[in-house]
Amino acid sequence: MLEYLLRLTGVIRGFSPAKSFTTYVIPAAIAGLAAGSIMAAEARAEEVNLYSSRQPFLMQPLLQAFTAESGIKVNMVYMKKGMLERLRSEGRNSPADLILAADIGNLHNHDKAGLLQAVTSPTLDSNIPAQYRHPKGHWFGLTLRARVIYASKTRVRPGEVSRYEDLAAPAMKGRVCIRSGKHVYNVSLLASIVVAQGMDGAKAWAKGLKANLARKPQGNDRAQVKAVYQGECDVAVGNTYYMGKMATNEKDPEQKKWAKSVNIIFPNQQDRGTHVNISGAAVTKSARNKANAIRLIEYLSSDAAQKIYAERNFEYPVKAGVALHPLVASWGKFKADKAHLAKVAQERTRASKLMDRVSFNN
Ligand code: FE
Questions:
Q1: How far is the CA of 222 from the centre of ligand 1 (A)?
Q2: Which end of the chain has fewer CB within 10 Å, C or N?
Q3: Ligand 1 centre from 36 Cα, in Å?
Q4: Dist. CA 329 → ligand 1 center (Å)
Q5: pLDDT exceeds 70 at position 9
Q6: Domain limits, the chain
Q7: What integer is the mean pLDDT of 232-240?
Q8: What is 48-144+277-329's CATH number?
C-alpha cells in the first residue's frame, strides 16, 4: 500500500480519496443532525484534505497543533511516490486541497502539469522570502535544505574543496561520490549552475564531475557519506538534514560513524553561495476547501510551527528569526545562493537533458 491514513485526532474518520469526497462528509453531517445540532454538523465539516510526500512522523505533531488551534480537521494521505500521477488521474474530482512535497523539482512538476492554483496571502508573503515562493503563489517553501559537500576529515585538507566547481577540477579525480544525476536533488543543483553559469558552464561542470567519480552514481545521499567513511571516495554531495539524521540515529548507530567521518562544507561562500532547496506546499486546482488549505499553509509558516517543522527534520526554517536545532546551528552560518527558485525550476528540463547528454549515470 502506498499510503495509509493518519488518525490525527479522535474525531477523524477514515478518509480514502479513492472513494468520493462525500462518502466522508455526508455521514458526518447525518451524525450531527441525529445529535440534534445543525451547528455541530457545520462545524464538523470544517476540514482540509492533504496529500503529503512528507513523512507522518514529521507532519503529525504540526497537524494536530493546527487542528487544536483552528478547529479544522486535516485528512492526510501520505504518499511516498506517485502523487502527481494520482492527482492527474483524479483530475477535477480530486479530493486533495493541498500538497506537501520536497524539492522545487517536485513542486514545479505539479505546477507544469496544471495541478496547482494561485494563492494570495499577505501572511505567506511576509513569512516567506520571495526567492522561496512562486511569484504568483503557485507554491510556497516551508523548510530549507542546503545541498552541501561532505568531505573526509582525514583525506581532504582544509580549503582543498570550497566550491561546487572544485568537484569537477582535476585534483578530485577518482575521489567523488554522488547519487544519480537524474535524481530530483541533483537536477535542481545542476539547474542552479545553469542559472549561474549558463549551459556551457553547466555542461563543463557535469562532465568534469562525471570524470572525477570514484564509482557509478548510486544509492541515496546517506550512502555517499557511508562511502566516504569506508574510504571509497573522499568527497560527496548531499543535503544537510541527512547529517542530522545520521548523527542522531539510534536505530542504526553505525550511521553515527559515517556522519563523524566527514565535515560539512557549504560551497561557494566567496561567490554566489550554496544551493538551497525547499520543501513546500501548494494549493491544488481541484481544492474545495481552499480557504482552509491556505490557513494550514499559513500556520506552517508561523513561528511556532516553523520551529517544530525545521527542528524535527534537521532543516532550516524558511522564516527569518526562528531558532535552529542546536546540531544544525553547530554547522555554522552560511550564505545561500540568491537565485530565485522559480528561475532554477525553469532550467530543470535543460539540466535533466544535460545529465543525459554527458551520460552522467553510465
Ligand atoms: Fe531527502
A1: 9
A2: N
A3: 48
A4: 19
A5: no
A6: 1-45, 48-144+277-329, 145-275+332-357
A7: 98
A8: 3.40.190.10
- Distance in Å, CA 277 to ligand 1 centroid: 11
232 Cβ contact partners less than 8 Å away, ≥ 6 residues apart: 177, 214, 215
Size (the chain), residues? 362
| pTM to 2 decimal places | 0.88
pLDDT tens for each residue of 208-228? 999 999 999 999 999 999 999
d(CA 187, CA 123): 31
Angle CA 244–247–250, to nearest 5? 110
Q: Which three cell numbers stand for residue 105?
A: 523539482
> Which residues does residue 265 pair with via DSSP β-bridges, in sequence order?
149
Amino acid at 193: I
Residue 16's pLDDT is what? 41
Is 145-275+332-357 a domain of CATH 3.40.190.10? yes
Q: Produce one character per residue of 64-97: b if its CB has 16 or more CB atoms within 10 Å, e if not.
A: eebbeebebbbbbbbbeeebbebbeebeeebbbb
> Can you tell me the distance from the alpha carbon of 162 to that of 269, in angstroms, rounded to the nearest whole number?
8
Q: Distances from the Cα of 343 to the Cαs of 10, 131, 149, 262, 280, in angstroms?
A: 43, 9, 23, 32, 16
Residue closest to 116 by CA, chosen among 350, 5, 278, 280: 280
